[in-house]
Structure formats: structure tokens, C-alpha cells
Amino acid sequence: MEKVKDKPTVAETTRKYIDRHPSIRDCISKDLINFSSLARRIMKDTGVKHEEAVLAASRRYAAKLSKTDFEGGIMKVFEESRLELKTRICIVVAKNEWIVLKNLEDVVRRILSEKSIMQVMQSANGITVVSEDKYLPSITRAIGHDHIISVRQNLAEITVKSPASIEETPGAFAYITSMLSEQGINLLEVVSCYTDTIFVVTREDMMLAFDILSGCIEDRIATNDMPQA
After folding, report:
1. What's the whole-model pTM score?
2. Domain 78-224: which CATH class?
């Protein structure tokens, strides 16, 4: 006879809910949460009926989280980050077939030898190539029109170049992507490669996206440079 799984406790449900909402978790760590409102929200979203139990569990978890400043660690990374902006970028999406990668070999070698940008990403449904517009004819010719799914050009690429500590900083990638998406920026491609976080956007979104990212970095630096009272 199959054993019935134990129903999660109110405390477990509360912790899981908070962990699945990073913005709530970070506000708790900074003591910026109205716990009564949070308890009612958790009850509404999870179906838990005992408000006092949820409230108590939230406060206990807050005591633990108060020792951690998630956003502070992320912003320390931004202190040493810088931005690069490139225009005239293209994206080619091709079928996920081995012949596509084989055909791209000579083009990749040429582009890299010229110290130009190029990213090739493979998923179960396709192969995506990001490069400069000037290489678009060579890329599409190498792939073959029968294998191409879509082509976009005249795009922009913004790269956040961070220190190596970004690899050990939880939430850094999610933080900068959420900043852009919350302002209505449509991210056509997002690539994380070692210390570089690369965003490809339309030319229409380019300046707003750049301003959002540069504002985050510059505001942090300006705050640190202010004289202490």
C-alpha cells in the first residue's frame, strides 16, 4: 500500500512561499514588511487557514533572514561593474541539426579571428547565433536557408561586465533581468558567460535599457562616494 505523504506544516508552507518570492524575502531581510499583510497574502495564495500560525512562522523566519542582505551583496558586485553598448547586432535562429553547427565552423573561426562578437547557443528546439550585422550574409549562407527559422537585425547588445565575484553572488543575474523586465524592456536574448551578462534588445528599447542599467551602477557608486556624517 502506497504511503500517503505528510501534509506540510504551516511553518513549511510559509517558508516555501517566502523563498519563492525573492522581493518579499529581501524586504523581510531589511525589516520592510508588514507581517499582518504578509500573513493574509500567504493565506490567500496557499489556502492556509490559521492566521496566527502564519504570522508566527513569518516572524521566526524573518529573524533568520535579518542576518542576510541579499540585495547588498548584489550591489557590491555592481560597484565594480561596467557597461558596453554595441549596435548593428543580428540574431539568427536555426533548426537544431548537427549540420548547422558543422557549417558554422568556418564562419565562427573567421569572426573570432577578427576579435568580433559572436555567441552560439544550442537548445532542444534550435540553435541561436548572435553576431554583428556585417556578418549576417556569411552566417545565413553557411547555415543554409532551408535550416533557418528566423532572422532579426539592426538590434543592440548591452553587456554588463562584472568582477568574478558575480559567480558566487546569489540572485545577481535575476536582479538585473527583473529591473529591465519591470520597465517593459523586451529581452530578445539573454546570455550569461563567465563575468559577462549580455542583453540583446531592439533599437527602440536600447537607450532605456542602458539608462536603467547604468543608473543602477552609477547610483551605487554615488552613494558610496557620499561623505559620511
Report:
1. 0.69
2. alpha beta
